[in-house]
Amino acid sequence: MSAHVPILRCFDLDGCVVISDEAIGDGLRHALDLIGLPEPDAASMRAAIGPPLITTIGGRIRLAGLDPETEEGAALLTTAVAAYRTRYAEVGFDLTRPVPGMVELLERLRDADHGTTVIVTAKPAAVAEPLLAHLGLRDAFDAVHGAPMGPEVEEKRVTLARALATTRTAALDAVMIGDRSHDMHAGRACGTRTVGVLWGAGDRDELEQAGADRVVAQPDELAVILLGA
């Protein structure tokens, strides 16, 4: 990645800005138990951080031998997603915390003389907004771009493209920052630069194979890229 400082800074939420392993795991266990499916193993639980909820639960239903798009499978998916969201609203916010060093980084970005900082997440905006407010982070972002609340899965590249269009930012002046491959794929699809972070659910191999321009291990390293200092 060149030294050109991005004008639009797009942050993934789960695993990038906040540590949500416990909240997502709790909600997923609750939802799957309700529809009679076994608890995922640790690797599967970690893989659930980042992708859309509907995709994650739909995958578990497929492993049980049902099609989540037809009849019984679809009914189970609807029930499980509703149960997850209810549980998450009850306890998930309190089980989530900012990534260490992230509050300080966001304060530096907010105090900078240039640039716009936004969230681009697979979470519905209607969930992401109050979560950030609960954690005292909402004012650190100029906008929150999330998926719709309905049953359709919105690809991350579509959400990112909306952020670019809304801010009228050229792709080369933007950067997508996240911890999973789909964050990197979204940035590549939209033509932005990409930075993978190693404090979330993804590892270096996943991020580099997905086309990350840079991979960083600490928020301080990210500050150098985003602020040029």
Written account of the structure:
With 229 residues, the chain is α/β, with parallel strands linked by helices. The chain folds into two domains: 8-19 and 97-227, HAD superfamily/HAD-like (Rossmann fold); 21-95, DNA polymerase, domain 1 (Orthogonal Bundle), CATH 1.10.150. The protein is 48% helix and 15% strand. The protein is built from ten helices and eight strands. It has a six-stranded parallel beta sheet, with helices on both faces. A two-stranded antiparallel sheet has the order 2-3. Helix 8 (181-190) links the parallel strand 6 (174-178) and strand 7 (193-197). Helix 3 (53-63) packs across helix 4, helix 5 runs parallel beside helix 10 (219-227) and helix 7 (156-167) crosses helix 8.
Strand order of the largest sheet: 5-4-1-6-7-8
Termini separation comes to 15 Å
Order of helices and strands: EEHHHHEHEHEHEHEHEH
> Sheet bearing the most strands, described?
6 strands, parallel
Helical/strand content category = alpha/beta
Helix content: 40-55%
Number of extended strands: 8
Q: What are its keywords?
A:
single chain, 229 residues, alpha/beta, Rossmann fold, DNA polymerase, domain 1, 2 domains, six-stranded parallel beta sheet, 10 helices, globular
Lay out the secondary structure:
Blueprint: E1 8-11, E2 18-19, H1 21-34, H2 42-47, H3 53-63, H4 71-92, E3 97-98, H5 102-111, E4 116-124, H6 125-134, E5 143-147, H7 156-167, E6 174-178, H8 181-190, E7 193-197, H9 204-209, E8 214-216, H10 219-227
Parallel strand pairs: 1-4, 1-6, 4-5, 6-7, 7-8
Antiparallel strand pairs: 2-3
Helix pairs in contact: 1-4, 3-4, 5-10, 7-8
